[in-house]
Fold this protein.
Amino acid sequence: MIRPSPRPLRRLRNAALILAAVAGLVAANGPVVTDVVDSAWTDYQRDQPDYKARYGHWETVSLPEEYRAQAIHAALLRTGKVLLIAGSGNDAEEFEAGTFRTLLWDPATGDTEEIPTPEDLFCSGHAYLPNGNLVIAGGTRRYEVLAPGITRAAGVLTVKNEGHGDSVHLPEGTRFTARGKSYVSTADVTVPPAHTMPDGSRMAGEQEVWIEATEQGDRSVVTGGQQFQVQDLEPAQRRNVYGVGDTITLEKQNYQGLDASYEFDVASETYRRTARLTESRWYPTLIGLEGGRILAVSGLDEYGRIIDGDNEIYDPATRSWADQPQLNRYFPTYPALFRLADGQRIFYSGSNTGYGSHLAGRQPGIWNLADNSWQDVHGLHDPEYNETSTSFLLAPAQDQRVAIVGGGLVGDSEESTARFDVVDLAEPTPRYAAAPDYPSPARYINAVTLPDDHTLLTGGSVGYRGNDQSDLHLTTLFEPESGQLHSAAPNQVGRNYHATALLLPDGRVMTMGSDPLFADEENTLPGRFETRIEIYSPPYLFAGDRPTVTSAPTEVTRGSTFPISADGTDVATARLLRPSAVTHQTDTEQRSVALEVTPREDGTYDLSLPAEEGLTPSGWYMLVVLDSGGVPSPARWVHVE
């Protein structure tokens, strides 16, 4: 059965609409939308032991002022420290000043360190290497410019060289003319010479460059093919070198992607430069492959255009990227990708963020990297609401199920959905099926898988970037076995765009960031980036004594059985939890792998690890054991090969 699309929710000023949507959860959550206050739910009541044991508990952490940065990217390292990457932090002034920030925070001690950040890694992508280092690729080359601020026509010019001699170098500021109007380039460009094709024809060398009109106004706008003359060349070169442009306009100029690539070295806590990306990328998704390779897809290129299916792979042995023309596949920016158990296939849930046609690349499906084939996955409700939705791999990973929740229409629409669907990818013909709706329509929900297999869903907003003060003070726990949502204590800090969340080794959940456009219900006062950290302690942390892993190997192998010792109570289940590396609700790393538990006569336990590399990719994991009541131990770091 297909549910009808939600009614438009453009100006949610009536608290009753939200309270009605969450009738089953009001008892735990109290206020749901900013400024909707239920005075009966006080801090005192939420601090009571019975409440914590049933709903969990939130606490707010404010770092020292000098360490309050925009946590747009967050990754849990194998040392237990959290890497928070802001780059320029969505602040054009910081970008122009060359101020790029990274923080390293230790949740166990509270210690914070500023890490020198070499380039603007704002809106990059990231994935782990088997050794635990984090590859960060892409970022911001230039900030967007909105149409009201554009006074000179600008755009991409393709410069062609029909000469067979040397390459032609055109420095920044080179003058071009067309139809009596003058333009200048904004960067150096080297145009290769023409070359001979196999059939004997000659193909001009070409290179792109951004140009801007020297005069203000719309008389310099070019739409449709137009040839440009290069003014700063010798006459002999001018005959062979010219430009071609068709979109030199006064329209909005998108963010421009960067070809930066680094490994964050966990041991030295520094960025290590690698070879550059073959394609500049802003808003890309990175996902690990067999052998420690990393696939990078999508993003905006160096001129702010959506990349049309050009994907590339990082080789950790050479620390370099290589184009993959055999894997041409188009996605919107920040597509949500999940590697399946067979290791060869990747599932695209349909979730994405930000840019791309509303028609292309929106169909969920399974991408087979062995032959670049594609299998559509149908049945998704409200498929037009996938932008800023949230997807996650249900625990345990062996079940091969993915959920998608919330989302909005393409662009800055205020409409969102409460849709909650789940797909079983182990089926021969997978198809989404409806789970109970989320309590409220929402964008930007953060999803964190817990050691007891529940997934914590928290934050988000009804409107675009929290407009109309629509941040959700709403947290739930999704139980994958029953498919039900359960009440949890409400987050006290609103979290919308640019918010992140991840699981900590002690079993708590850390939430950060939020980037509202406005600070008032009338959408007139500018918003401020949220720098407070909020930490959630799930109910299992108030359920009595916890088991403790007292001994376990540091290195384990897929398909093997290894011994552990544990104090406390019985060990009923065990999980390997891969640490998160998350941005924009996109996390290709997070997964929970079930281990078979066999008690031994001496009171120790044998744990058996699945053999499939696609289930447990090489790298560092948090080993957690749980007692028969579902209470987890603190994590112990284990390396899987």
In short: The helical segments are 15-21, 26-29, 43-46, 49-55, 92-97, 235-238. The chain has a mean pLDDT of 93. DSSP finds six helices and 49 strands in the chain.
